[in-house]
């Protein structure tokens, strides 16, 4: 079970980071504009994030192994088809379908770990789980760069899909577990949340192309607000909501979700757009750009295990706050980037951001899942992953909108450099504010616990 979960967990972020390195090649080969190639990443992330909560509820109800196998199969099938398409619209639709499968697989994987391991073994399992996520992020750009140089951009989708096929061969040996009582699927919440997130992403991605005052963009943002309001109303009235709004009354849980969303909102947009800067402005090959990004992602391979060990002497909350601060400092430091930047210029800021990400991956998942009853483990995993994925998806779209506006949709200098620096300063400020907020929320939670214990 652990082998299967780790293999699929590695493949899911590999599909994201690999696609980001391939964006310039995809645009040239399929004659697609910036908005079109943005959906290669945004379509995958948007459905991944919006389907996470529904996938958690379905896994609890129908069985974690069953939904895990279904998700991996959908992810693999969509990836293989994407590798063979010559149409950007079809590619984007297949990427969105792959995101649905990834949501089912990722949520069920976390629940399978929680159901199989207990105590210290569970903590170690989630540390390795975080390391697998980090490995997919760390080696995704470099693997993708080599694949693109040798086989072309299509291999970026085919290789993770083939890894999914291999995982399916292990499914018969996986343990099955499910919620011990029959429940109801919150279709109303699923539909309203998905519609709100997709419309929000549509507004940011297409805004620079259509114009921010275009009726379609204005309508998309207005509909986003309406669907989010509807989502809250549906969740309050549903007997078994997919998102338990009462969790928002728990400062510790809110802090965990905020930290998760903040760290990936810095990391993932850089993984998506920094390869394009390195290749089109600095002049690196795809493989060299991927190798450079290892500075950003390599710490996520080993630090999840170290973070777990640190919690023996330092509280997990302290580790999380330190991690978010490191991300903020790294983003501010990265504003030194320029067309003449070399490895020495980028090493410090990229490693600082990677340090923060590595300390938080895995630890945040364990804290979130540990805050819900065991029979709702998949739903608990879905909530933290939804916060993470929604944060990174919106961040990718916002960063893309800024860069599209500053580069006239061509991701070329000089606008690319100024736009990227603006984005990095915004990331640094947002992460610093988030670190302060998380520290306050955790402190309030600790005081409440002491009061209750007294």
Your description of this structure?
- The chain has 454 residues and is mainly α.
- It has a single domain, classed as Growth Hormone, Chain: A.
- The protein has 18 helices and no strands.
- This is MFS transporter.
- Pfam families: MFS_1 (PF07690).
Question: What does the secondary structure layout of this molecule look like, with pairings?
Answer:
Blueprint: H1 2-30, H2 34-50, H3 52-62, H4 64-83, H5 88-116, H6 119-150, H7 155-168, H8 187-210, H9 215-237, H10 251-282, H11 286-292, H12 294-297, H13 299-310, H14 316-333, H15 343-360, H16 363-369, H17 377-407, H18 415-453
Helix pairs in contact: 1-2, 1-5, 1-6, 1-7, 1-10, 2-5, 2-8, 2-17, 3-4, 3-5, 3-17, 4-5, 4-7, 5-6, 5-17, 6-11, 6-13, 8-9, 8-17, 10-14, 10-15, 10-17, 10-18, 13-15, 14-15, 14-18, 16-17, 17-18
User: Biggest sheet: strands, sense, closure?
Assistant: none
Portion of residues in helices? over 70%
Task: Enter the CATH topology name.
Answer: Growth Hormone, Chain: A
Shape call: globular
The CATH superfamily bears the name: MFS general substrate transporter like domains
The H-and-E topology, N to C, reads as HHHHHHHHHHHHHHHHHH
The whole-angstrom Rg is 21 Å
**H/I helix tally:** 18
SSE class:
mainly alpha
In angstroms, what separates the terminal alpha carbons? 42 Å
Known CATH architecture: Up-down Bundle
Low-confidence stretches: 447-454
Strand content: under 5%
Number of domains: 1
What is the arithmetic mean of pLDDT? 84
What is the CATH class name?
Mainly Alpha
* Total beta-strand segments: 0
Membrane topology: Multi-pass membrane protein
Subcellular location: Cell membrane
Keywords: Membrane, Transmembrane, Transmembrane helix
Domain Major facilitator superfamily (MFS) profile: 1-446
């Amino acid at each position: 079970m652990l082998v299967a979960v780790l293999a699929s967990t590695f493949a899911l972020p590999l599909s994201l980071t690999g696609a980001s390195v391939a964006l310039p090649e995809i645009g040239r080969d399929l004659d697609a504009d910036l908005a079109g190639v943005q959906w290669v990443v945004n379509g995958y992330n948007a459905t991944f994030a919006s389907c996470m909560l529904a996938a958690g509820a379905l896994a609890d109800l129908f069985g974690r192994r069953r939904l895990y196998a279904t998700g991996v199969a959908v992810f693999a099938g969509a990836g293989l088809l994407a590798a063979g398409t010559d149409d950007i619209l079809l590619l984007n639709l297949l990427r969105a379908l792959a995101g649905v499968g990834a949501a089912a697989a990722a949520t069920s994987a976390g629940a399978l770990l929680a159901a199989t391991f207990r105590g210290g073994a569970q903590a170690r399992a989630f540390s390795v789980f975080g390391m697998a996520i980090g490995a997919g992020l760390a080696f995704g750009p470099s693997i993708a760069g080599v694949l693109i140089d040798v086989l072309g951009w299509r291999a970026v989708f085919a290789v993770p899909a083939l890894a999914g096929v291999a995982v399916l061969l292990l499914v018969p040996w996986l343990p099955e577990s499910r919620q011990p009582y029959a429940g109801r699927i919150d279709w109303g919440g699923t539909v309203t949340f998905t519609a709100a997130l997709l419309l929000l992403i549509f507004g940011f991605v297409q805004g620079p192309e259509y114009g921010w005052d275009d009726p379609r963009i204005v309508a998309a943002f207005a509909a986003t607000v309406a669907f989010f309001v509807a989502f809250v109303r549906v969740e309050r009235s549903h007997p078994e909501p997919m998102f338990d709004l009462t969790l928002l009354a728990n400062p510790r849980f809110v802090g965990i979700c905020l930290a998760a969303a903040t760290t990936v909102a810095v990391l993932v947009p850089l993984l998506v757009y920094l390869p394009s800067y390195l290749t089109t402005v600095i002049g690196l090959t795809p493989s060299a750009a991927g190798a450079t990004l290892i500075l950003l992602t390599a710490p996520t391979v080993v630090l999840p295990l170290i973070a777990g060990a640190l919690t023996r002497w330092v509280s997990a909350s302290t580790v999380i706050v330190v991690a978010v601060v490191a991300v903020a400092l790294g983003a501010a430091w990265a504003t030194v980037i320029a067309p003449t930047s070399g490895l020495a210029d980028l090493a410090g800021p990229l490693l600082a951001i990677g340090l923060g990400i590595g300390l938080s991956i895995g630890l945040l998942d364990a804290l979130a899942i540990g805050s819900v009853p065991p029979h709702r483990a998949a739903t608990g995993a879905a909530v933290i992953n939804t916060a993470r994925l929604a944060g990174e998806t919106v961040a990718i779209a916002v960063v893309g909108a800024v860069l599209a506006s500053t580069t006239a949709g061509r991701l070329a200098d000089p606008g690319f450099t100024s736009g990227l620096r603006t984005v990095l300063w915004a990331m640094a400020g947002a992460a610093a504010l988030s670190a302060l907020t998380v520290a306050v929320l955790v402190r309030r939670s600790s005081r409440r616990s002491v009061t209750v214990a007294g």
